[in-house]
Every structure is written in C-alpha cells, then in structure tokens.
Amino acid sequence: MKPNKISRRVRTGTVLGSTAGLMLAMASIVAAPAASADAGLTLKYKCTYPLIGQQDLNVAISTDIPDKVALNTPSPTINIKAVSTVSGDTTFGLWTTLTKKLTGTAKAQASLVAPQYPTGLPLKPNMTLADANVPDSGPFDITATGTQVPLTFNKAGWAQITVGNLDLAITPLGADGKPTGLGQINASCKQLPGQNNVLKQFLIDDGTNPPKPDPVPGKYPAPNPVQTLDPGLPSSPEKTLDYTCPYPLVGDGDLQVKVKSNFPTEVPVNTATQDFISQAIQVTSVSTVPADVNENGLQQLGAVQMDGTALAHPTITVPEMANPVPLQMALKLDKTNVPATGPVSINGPGKAPALSFTKTGAGKVALDDIDIQNFTTYDADGNPANLGDFTCHLKSGQDNTLFSFTIKDGGTPPPVDTTAPSVPANVSGTATGGSVAVKWDASTDNDGGSGVKGYYVTVDGKKGDLVTGTSTTVSGLADGDHTFAVSAVDNAGNESAASAPVTVKVSTGPGPDTIAPSVPANVKGAATGGSVAVSWDASTDNDGGSGVKGYYVTVDGKKGDLVTGTSTTVSGLADGDHTFAVSAVDNAGNESEASTPITVKVSTGPGPDQTAPSVPANVKGTGSDDGSVALSWGASTDNDGGSGVKGYYVTVDGKKGADVVTGTSTKVSGLAQGDHTFAVSAVDNAGNESAASAPVTVNVPGKPSGGGASYTLSGSSTIKGLNGKVALNGAVNAAVDGSGKVSADLTLNPTTGTFSLFGFIPATADIAFAPQGKTTGTLSGSTLSTDTKTVVKIPSIKVFGMDLGVGSTCQTSAPADIPLKSTNFSVAGGGTLTGSYTLPSLTGCGFLTPLVSALAAGPGNTIDLKATPKK
C-alpha cells in the first residue's frame, strides 16, 4: 500500500499550524527594524489522526524577527516561513485513502512572554495552507509563508516567543477534486517533551541594555504514550470471493480470490491517557485463473509464466466515520509457472498502514473490485507479452467482508503516576508599586510521569490559582513585607513541596500630593509689535511631590493653556497696556498662586516720527493780471520709516497759509498788482515741518486798460491728412480793451512743408495763409482765447521733386476756423498758444482737386505758436 492520506494531511496541517504560530509570534515581537537576525527552529511532534493514529511530524520554522524592538513604536510587518517534510510512511497512508491533494487550515499554540505580559500572552493565529499535491510515494515538502500585523510594547526588557502544539482542520481531496471518504480531519499535534521551543529572544529597547536571560522553554501538554498491539492476537479468518474479469483474447472469465490478513478481531479504543495502534496490516491473496482461461487464452500465447500487479479497492467501516471510507491496496502478483492444462493460482501479497480508533463499536473491511495491471505472460524463451490492464468485478450476491473486528474499551493502562514533580528552584520577586513579579525555574516530572501541569504560588500563606508558566505577577499588595513560595503539580494531581519562601518589600510610595509648587518669580515681558515674550524663573515642588508639570500664563485676567517651559510668547495683542501673571501646576493638579502681575505696553507701529521732511525745492511762480500767482515746487521726501509727507504750507509775503496743500502746486489769488514773495515748507503725518524754501518773488501785473502790443509768432502746424508738419512764422498786432476783449491783425508767412503721402510717398507742398478779417478773443488773467479765420492756399505740390501743377487757385473752399488758447499769457510777456482745427475741402486744384482734397481736408489738425513781444 502507499502513503496514508491522513498522514499527509497531518503534515500539511502541522506546517500550517507552525507557520501561523510563528506569524503571530513574529508580529507580537516586532517593533522597529533593529538589526534583524533570522530566527530558526525545528520541532518534533506526534499528530493523532483518524484511522492511522499517531504519526511523527518535523516542522522547520524561520522568521526575520529582529534582535531589538523600539519601545512604544509599532512594529513592522514580519515574514514567516515554515517547511514540513512529509515522510514516505505518511505519503503511503495518504495514497491508501485515495488522496491526491490536501487543503485546510491550522491553529498553532504559541506564547509571548515580555515585561508587558509577564505570565505570557497566548497566541493562536490562523493560517490557510496553499493546496498541496500528494505524490504516489516518497517524502515531500510543504511550505507555508505569511506575515503578521504590528504590535506595540510599552514596557522595556527582554522578551521571548515559544512555539507550542498544533490543531489541524484538513480536507483530503481525491482525483476528482472532491473530498475523500475521510471528510474533514480534525487532528491534534503535540510537541515531544525535552525540546527547546524558544523561537526567539529579543530586547524591547529603552537604551538601558539589561543582560540577556537564559531562554525558558514553554510548557505544553505532551502526546499520549503509544501502545502497539501484540501481533499474536487472534486474527480474522480467510475469505474467498468470486469475480468476473474481461481477459484479453478470451473475453469474460471467472477469477477466484482468497484473502487472509493479520488484523486482530479485537482492538482497544484510544483513551485520554493512552493511544493504541495495530501492527502494519499484512495481506496475502491467492487468485485462481480457471482452466478454460488458461487453455483457451494463456496457452494460445505460448505462456509458460505470468506476473503483474493488482490494485484492490477495499472499504473500511468504523464508528468514528459517518460513511464507509474507500481505500486502495497495491498487490504484487508473483511470477508464476503456467501449466499446460488446468487452472493457474498466483500469489498476491500486499500491505496496509497500521490502524487506530477513537470510538468503540463494530468495524469491518470489505473488498470490492480489483484492477489487474501490467498483466504479462512469458514464453519458453522468456519473451514477455504485456496483455495490458483490466478490471475484475465482484460478482453480486456475495458477502464481501474480508474481516470484522470489535473496537472495545481496554488495553493495558499506563502505570499510575504517584510521584510529584521537583520543587521549583530559584524563586525570586521584584516589587513595582503594589505588585510583585514572581519567577522561578521550571520543575521536572519523573520519567514516565504524567508531566508538569503547572504551579501554585502561595502569598503570605495563601495559595493562589494554577499558573501554567514559570512566572506571574501578584497585584494589589499593601505596603510592607510579603512572603512568596511556589509548588509544582503534575497532570496526575501530585503536588511538590513548596519552595523556600522569599520575602519582598512592597512600597506604593507616599500619599497623594496636595501641595502646590512655589509661585513663579522674576516674571518679565518684552513687547515686539503685537506680541509679548514672557519669561519667569522655574518653580519647585515639595519634597516627594509629584513634580512641576508646567505653568499657566494669565493675560488681562484670562488664563491660557499649559506651558511646559519657563517662557512663552503671547501674540495678537492690541496696542496699549496688558497685564501678565504666571502660576505653576504640579502633576497632581495642585496650582500655585499667581505671580505679581506685570504690565507691558504694546505698540504695533514703529516709534514716534521726529524727523521733518526735506525742504521743498525749485519753487516757481507766474503772476496773472487777475491778481493771482500760479505757484509750483518739487516734492519733498520723508525719512526712512517716517510717517510720510502729509503736505505743504505756502507762505505769502511772510504770512503762512492755514491750510495744508496736498499737491506740489497751488494758485494764490487776491493779490495786489506788484511783487510778492513766496516760500514753501513741507509737513509730515507726525506734524514735523521742514524749514521754508528760499523765497521767490513773483510780479502780479495789472489788468490791461487799453492799448496794443505787437508779437512775433513762431511754431508749427501738423496736417493730419498729409501726414506731415509745416513750420509757421509771422506776427500779430493786438489791441486789448479794458474789459479784456482782444482784436488783432494776424499775419502768417508762406511756408513749405514736407509730407508722406499714404504713409510712404515723399512730397512737399507750398502753403500760404490769407486771414479773413481780424483775429478776435478775450484775455482774462493769464488765459488768452482767440479765433482766427483764414483761407489756406496750396499753390504747389511736388512728389519725388516733380510739380503736380495744382496751380495758384488751389485753396480751401471756405476759411478754416482756427481757435487758439494760452494759459500763460501776459501782455508784457506773451505766451504759448495751442489749438486744433478742421481743414475744409479744397478747390481749384485742377484735375487733382478730388485727390488733394481727399488727402488734406478733414479734422484733427493741430497748431502750436509762441508769441514773443517785439522789442
């Protein structure tokens, strides 16, 4: 027979369990990626499965647990790998139960012992195994990998992870992908005693580097002892069954099979303290080929010998299985001589795994069809003839039970354990507040004993609950000395003597702190803009007090948040005075009186501006006969960071004006005819006034009372349509009456202008002016407004130097109306005049009249003249 399917599952489950256990252990111990050292561990187990009983299992575990983890820091993810090697015997069991693939889950027992968990934190992670294909024979490996989420440790010191027993839930699948007759297998794998099951020791690091303790293996329930049944027990009788086989060449024929096994008629059931298992099942079979098949078939092939293999298909029915479980058994058909006549009998020995049962009742094994494989005959020269494979079917109407057996209570019970474990040694205790952490060395039980179950810790003469590890923490102790002793108990209830007692002093510390810290002294404040930096001397707490926690700063009567240092900055303060006081608070919540308040003035602006602006320069004035002077000056500047120039005061004839002038010019009115002195000073927004400028004298002329004046004219006019400018020169004789009315004779000299026709054709034109009547207007103060009407003549136009022959009659069809205005005119000094005008259409220009008129006529023409009094 081939490897038992259950064993294979056991291997698989074990791998899963180990992997899962490691994963959780890893996650528990990892904090920060300190120097990582891969941890490795190989453990041996005994796994108990349905039908095939206890089987050995070795599991190799590896993981990248670091040597150190950081305190109060989440661990990174840990990687775990577990490799289980399935033995050839287990594969044989799997093969026997028709298993081709395994799937399932497992749970592993593991324990984390750390300062945070002194009595151990049980770990039972789950993990799913990847489907594993089962070979027909031989060992194979199953690998499981996984990761675990981080944990965080809040106590420093050494920690360790131990790996314990396994619980498996496995489903074997057949060639069709469906579960075999075994259904789901729930198996328990227990660790063999005496192994070091500490996967890893690691330091939860706070920088103190305590010495590394010796590893302490975890204690887990051991497997039951196993008793193998006596091979001399009564075995089942021989069974004869008849089959029909489709023989090659001959067709259907009979086959008689006689089967004998060594399986006993009575088998004890496994108990809580003892596992029973049969010897490996040996089967002998004799198959008889009838005479007609021999004579009509084998002899026709010249067969003198024959051999082959067979695959028998039994089923087993036992109380622990809900339905009969299909099996298979390999038989070797021995090479047998073939007589010339008569029937032929061939021996076919086989083997099945040893069996074990968990429920009492009746059991049986029945045989169904048999597959004949590699049926081969040999002639006299030894030449083989392979007749192939065929299946022999059990004839109906037969009781195909090969053997029956009874599963009963009994078996040889193990000896009663009456010996207590050894007394725990090296008991010690460490007090922290009202708790004491007690630890001791592991006890051992006698050879063949029931195993150490745990320990009782007796405190001040009172025995506590059972502790399964080798340490525990006793809490809620009052101040003073306390005695501790430890005894060990085994699974049979035998308790050792108590250890020598140890005394540990407990001190929970002084009573509650009810005294406030000292009042903060030397409180100071310095303002910068809208903020005040406040500082003070550190307060002290009373001896044995809880210690100063921090300070409260009260601003303008409102207490702020806790400050842990001896300074802070208070921001967002408005301009003005603010009061500050500081109180201290300790860790028990006691707050001191507030310090003597201090007052700090806050000013969000710069310091006061005390620097005057610069003295105004370049003061100038123009008098007008209307009794006013137009005064202007250069702008003053204020100092860097100053408040800025606000404006100017104008002093006239020694009298400063009351109003501030915000610009750099003003008009002073109401002045009498004659000379007047003017000076200007600048003032800033802080009220600082500069010195007055150097005085200037300006003459205010009297209003004209009649008479005339002559002026020469010079300037230019731009003719928009011709895209050019002409120079203007001439003269004007003007008369002004007492009301300011102007009447003048204007003369403009003929001139020549240069133009660009259409923007790119160079041209010149002779231009003459024929004023129509007098120039009229008004003079009020320094403002002169005039109007002149003149015919504009263009007697010659040349393009590229060639005269176009427009003729002397080429002129505007109507006088051009030219208004001029001056704002700085005086009879005595003249002034500048400007204006714009429209040039009427032209006429008398010959055949070019339309073109010349289209080019020259139109609005947008400008004129600029300067009138200078004639000497």
UniProtKB/TrEMBL annotation:
Entry-linked Pfam families: DUF6801
Supply the CDD domains for this chain: FN3 (cd00063)
Q: Which residues fall in a coiled-coil region?
A: none
Q: Which UniProt keywords apply?
A: Carbohydrate metabolism, Glycosidase, Hydrolase, Polysaccharide degradation, Repeat, Signal
Q: Where is the stretch described as Disordered?
A: 205-238, 602-621
Q: Membrane spanning segments where?
A: none
Highest rank taxon of the organism: Bacteria
Mark out the compositionally biased spans (Pro residues).
210-224
Which Gene Ontology molecular-function terms are recorded?
Answer: hydrolase activity, acting on glycosyl bonds
Where is each Fibronectin type-III domain found? Answer: 420-511, 516-607, 615-703
- List the SUPFAM superfamilies hit by this protein, alphabetically: Fibronectin type III
> What GO biological process terms are annotated to this protein in UniProt?
polysaccharide catabolic process
Q: Which residues form the signal peptide?
A: 1-37
Protein name per the record: Fibronectin type-III domain-containing protein
Record organism: Actinomadura montaniterrae
Q: What is the lineage of its organism?
A: Bacteria, Bacillati, Actinomycetota, Actinomycetes, Streptosporangiales
